Every structure is written in structure tokens, then in C-alpha cells.
Amino acid sequence: MPLSEEQRLNMIKKRQKILDSAITLFASEGYEGTTIKKIAESAEVSFGNVFTYFKDKEQLFLASVVEPLGTFSEQVLDFNTDAEDPLVELQEMVTKHIQLFAGVKSYLTLVAQVVGQPHRYPAAFEQLDQFHDQLREKISCLIKNGQHKGVLMKQDTMPVATLYTSLLIGIRLNNTDTRYSKIWDQYISPALQLFGPIN
Asked: CA Rg, the chain, in Å?
């Protein structure tokens, strides 16, 4: 007998609740410190119910890293490399990124664990590395646009893009607050200086 629409939606919600609990626990307690039992308790589902949605802990860990990356990458990559005014585009991009990174602490803590130990999590690292390459390349193109228009100083664009992405993750990991606050606004202007604006 096929599932009703209500049953299907309930299953989607339950799976997401398990995934959200897993992200939080993997981020705070690491892979070894996180058990399926802890995830089930946090998600308020039975131990066996977790396996309805995920084959094992390894698959759940991979899903915890990779699945949020789709939505996250769409938001992070939402800027125009061919903008008529590259300085305005950079300002808007940095502001959006700062706000976004301020709001996703658990996930980015988990990302930092994977990036810091690529040999332990090769499948998850590969997905994150592809996204990072794509982001750096796109930022590099925006910087080149600004250099071409004479509003950014000439410098090698890829190291600048790499420094910028490193700054974003570093700010997130060094701030203990879990919500967006005024202190994050103070990082926008210094971050913009990385790109070498010509005043």
C-alpha cells in the first residue's frame, strides 16, 4: 500500500530531524564520540528508526557533511563575477557571507573537522574540496573583473580568494555566539581590504 502524502511528509521531517541532530552531535563530540544511540535520543526517535533512513553511522556522517552543502553552496555562490561595479558586488558578497557564516556554527564546525583530517573522511572531503575550488575560482573571477576596471590593485587573485575563504571559516570558529550579532558587522570592512580596493 503506497504512503499517504501526510506519511511521506512525516518521514521527510523525521529524516531531517535525525540529520540535524547528527550534525550537531558530530560537530560537538566528533565522529568517535557520537553514537547512533545519542543521535536517536537527540532526534527523539527510536534507535532502530535511524536505520530506516541511514544504513549506518558512516553514511549518516557523510550525509551530515554533504547534504547541507547543496543549499549552503547556492547561497555562498550567489554573486555576479561580471558585475558592472565590482566594489559594490564585493561589499554585498562579503556582507552576505559574513551573515551566512554567522548563522551556521554546528555545520561549519563539522566542515572544519573534515577539512582538517581529509585522510579520515575522504568521501566527505572530496565534496567539500570541490565546492571550495568552485568558490575560490568564482571569487577570483570577480577580483579579476575589479582589477580590469581599475578599482582593485593588481595581485595574484587565487591567494587572495584562498585567504578570504580561510578568514570566513576562521571567524566562524573563533566566535562562540550562535546567532548573528553586531560584532560580525565589524568584520566586513577588514575583509574587504583583502581584495585591494583602490581609493
From this structure: 20
Q: Cβ neighbours of residue 91 under 8 Å, at least 6 residues apart? A: 188, 192
The span from the CA of 184 to the CA of 59, in Å, is 34
Confidence of residue 104 (pLDDT cuts 50, 70, 90): confident
Fold held by 1-54: Arc Repressor Mutant, subunit A (1.10.10)
Q: Given its phi and psi angles, is residue 79 left (phi above 0), alpha (psi -120 to 50 degrees) or beta?
A: beta
Q: Flag the least confident range among 54-58, 74-78, 178-182.
A: 178-182
**Predicted local confidence at residue 11, as pLDDT:** 83
Residues 102, 179: contact at Cβ < 8 Å? yes
Residue 197 β-bridge partners: 152
Helices (H) then strands (E): counts for the chain: 10, 0
pLDDT band for 1, please (50, 70, 90 cuts). Answer: low
Domain boundaries along the sequence of the chain:
1-54, 65-193
Grid cell 581590504 in the structure block, residue: 193
Say how far apart CA 56 and CA 58 lie, in whole Å.
5
Longest dimension (CA), the chain: 68
> 65-193 is classed in which CATH architecture?
Orthogonal Bundle (1.10)
For cell 547534504, the residue is 67
Task: Find the mean pLDDT for residues 21-41.
Answer: 95
